Amino acid sequence: MEFFRRVPRIRFMEKRKIWYAISAFIILGSATLLAVRGLNFGIDFTGGVVVEAGYTGPADLQATRDALAAAGLGAAQVQSFGTASDVLVRLPPPPEGQQAQQLTELAVAAIRSVDAGAEIRRTESIGPQVGRELAEKGALAVLMTLLFIAIYLMFRFQWKFSVGAVLAVLHDPFVVLGFFAATQMTFDLIVVSAILAVIGYSLNDTVVVFDRVRERLLSMRKATSLEVMNTAINETLSRTLMTSVTTMIVLVCLLLLGGETMRGFSIALIIGVIIGTYSSIYVAGAAALDLGLSQRDLMPPEKKEELDALP
Asked: How buried is 3 (Cβ within 10 angstroms: 0-12 exposed, 13-18 middle, 19+ buried)?
């Protein structure tokens, strides 16, 4: 199946400097948001208690907040999700001398004082020490993934390809982090797993494009590197868009039907699919081109020596 009836002839690389500026603006904005606002870490990282409830009718969030405050839980975060009757209550870690179970019981009692028939669907508690360990392991998982991908690319491609691919792999998760800092959506281990998936998706798309670039560099010997890059991207564009569209259909369904638990995961992946498709062209491909990629880079060493010896 093809997205286009004919291979398009879009001149992607001629406008790459404009896209460089756009990428720089996005990355700078993400860095600023992370420095100023930071991430809204979930209880996976901070520790605390979560109570998920289903009210018998539309939930009165303010009444729920008032009931929690009257129970001594004024720091609780109350939010609606899914349907109008679904409520999620987040509580900070219990103070010293108090157990998480006590906070849970107080929260459940406060919820049922607002709606006696409320269904308690989920309760979860994580200690602050466990949260810190999970945060460290999550960060380590992302760093190790990036390290091994960089090693793989060094052996998989010529170094100019590798630099472009590494830049794209670094670019995409940073944009996702910037979005979560901007929206203050909960950042938890499920979102970390989505970021790892984004890295893999971006890399896969970049490798497909670069494999075609390498083929065309060998078959289009009289063409310039810019013409080869445009040709390769256009030839893989149909496959890239088909993959992106089918993936997006699944992710949108997951966002709409997966509930609050899957919301951050699906949104992170939706952003990742969009930005990964973009970066495989305007970050990875453009960087390789501006590093001076040419047919000569794919020649065996002995061929380069023969070429250099010519008068």
From this structure: middle
